[in-house]
Amino acid sequence: MKTTFNNVGHGEAIFIQLDNGRGIVRDFGRAKQAKYTSTCCFPIDLLRSCRHTRKQCIPMIRKRTLDAVLSHAHEDHFSGFKTMCDLDREGVFENAYIPWLSMENLDSLGGLLIKYSLLLYRYYDPNTRTALNAKNWLLAAPVMAYISRKLWCVSAGHNVSEWGVSKILWPPEPSQSYQEKLRVKLVAYLSQNDPGSLFLELLNNDTEEILDVLRKFYPTSSVDQTGSEISSEDATKAIETISEVLLRRDRQLSSPEVLRRAYKSTLDDHGLVFEIGDGEEKALFLSDANDATVERMLKANDIRNQHYRTIKAGHHGNRGAKRLQKHNVTAGVVVNCCGPANNNYRGPSSEYLNVSKGDVICTDWNDSGSKWTGKTSYKISNTCRIVL
Questions:
Q1: Would the pTM of this model clear 0.90, i.e. be above it?
Q2: Domain harbouring 193, CATH code
Q3: Which of 14, 150, 326, 383 is disulfide-compatible with 26, CB 3.0–4.6 A?
C-alpha cells in the first residue's frame, strides 16, 4: 500500500494506492496559502492536471477501480469534489463513501442540521466560509453521487470488501442512540442560548423539501446500508433544488456565532474515520473530531495498545493526540495535513510527537507571519506531495 499526501495548504487531499490495484481518493480539499500547490493546479481537477497523480489515477478511472471518500463536507476537505462536479466530471469514481446521518424526519439529527444549514446560509453572506460550509454539507450527497457510479453512506462496522483488510470506525452505527442523544443536547444548548429565533416555523417547509431530496441518497435505517445507484439527472436535479431553496433569504437569527460553532463541531464529530491495511502496513485516517469524540471512537472499537505504520493526524494535527496516547496507540510516522489557516494559526499540536515513533511530517508550511513556534520539531515537506 502506498499513500500520497498532497500538499494543499490547510486542507486534505490524500491518495491511497492499494496492493490489489484499487485506489482511494480520501478527501479532496482546496489549496490555500500552500507554497508548492500551484505546480499541481489545485483545486482544478487534480486527478487530470497534476502530473504525479495523473499517472496513478487515470488508469484506475478507466478500469473503474478508483473510489472516493469524503470524511465530512467542510471546504478544506470537499471543495475539489465540488469542483469536479462543476466541471462535469460525471462517474469518475466507482464508489463514493460519506458518513451516515439519520434523515428520518425534521427532528432527526440530519433534519436538524438541514434547518441549521438554511439558517446559517440565509443569515451570512453566501460568499463567506460559514455560508459555503452550510451549502457544501447539503450538497455533499448529490455531488458525490454525481461524480461516482454508486454512493455509500457508511457507519462504524461497515466493511469495504474491495479495499481488502479495512474497517470503518466512525460515525457510530445507526442503531445506536448516540445521534439521538447528540440531537437532544444540541437542541437544548441552542434553545437556551438563542430562545425563540432558531426554530422558525417558516423554515420547516424548506427543510422538508431538502430532506425529501436527500432521502434518496442517505439510508433511513440500519438495515438499508447498501450503495445507491443514482442517475446523473437525479443528482443534477437534487443540486439545483437545494441551491434554489438556499437562496430564499432570511436573516432572523439573534445569535449566529452560537449556532455556527455548534453546527461546525457537529459535522466535525461525525467525520468518517477508517483503518486500512494489515500487519506492518496498517494505517489509521482520523478526521476532524474533537478529543472527546476520538475517545468515544477508540473505546467503541476497542483500539488500544495498537501500532500503525501511519496515522493521519486529527484536524491538521490539532486534535486526538492525547487520547491516542491514553490508549497507547502509536505510529511509525504521523502526517499532519496542515498549513496556516491564517496568521494567528499556531500550528499542529506538539502532542503528536509523543504518538510517533519516527517522524511527524507536515505537508507544508508557507510561513506568512504565523505564530507557530515549534517548527524545528517537525519534518516539513518542501514538495507538492509526501509519499509513504
A1: yes
A2: 3.60.15
A3: 14
- The domain tally of the chain equals 1
Residue reference for cell 451570512: 124
Q: Which residue has the cell 505510529?
A: 331
- State the alpha helices, DSSP H only, in 199-329: 202-214, 232-246, 256-269, 291-300, 321-326
The 10s digit of each residue's pLDDT in 137-186 is: 999 999 999 999 999 999 998 889 899 999 999 999 876 788 888 888 88
Cis bond upstream, residue 43 (ω within 30): yes
Contacts of 181 (CB under 8 A, 6+ apart): none
C-alpha–C-alpha distance, residues 158 and 169, integer Å:
8
Alpha-carbon span 330 to 82, nearest angstrom: 34
**328 torsion bin: left (phi>0), alpha (psi -120 to 50), beta (else):** left
| Grid cell at residue 381 | 515537506
Distance CA 363, CA 337 (A): 5
Q: Mind listing the pLDDT tens digit for each residue in 254-307? A: 778 888 889 999 999 999 999 999 988 999 999 999 999 999 999 999 999 999
Q: What are phi and psi of 47, to 5 degrees?
A: -60, -25
User: Which residues, 6+ apart, have CB-to-CB distance to 104 below 8 Å?
Assistant: 110, 111, 220
Over residues 84-91, the mean pLDDT reads 87
Q: Could you tell me the three cell numbers for 335?
A: 502526517
DSSP 258: H
Provide the pLDDT for residue 43: 40
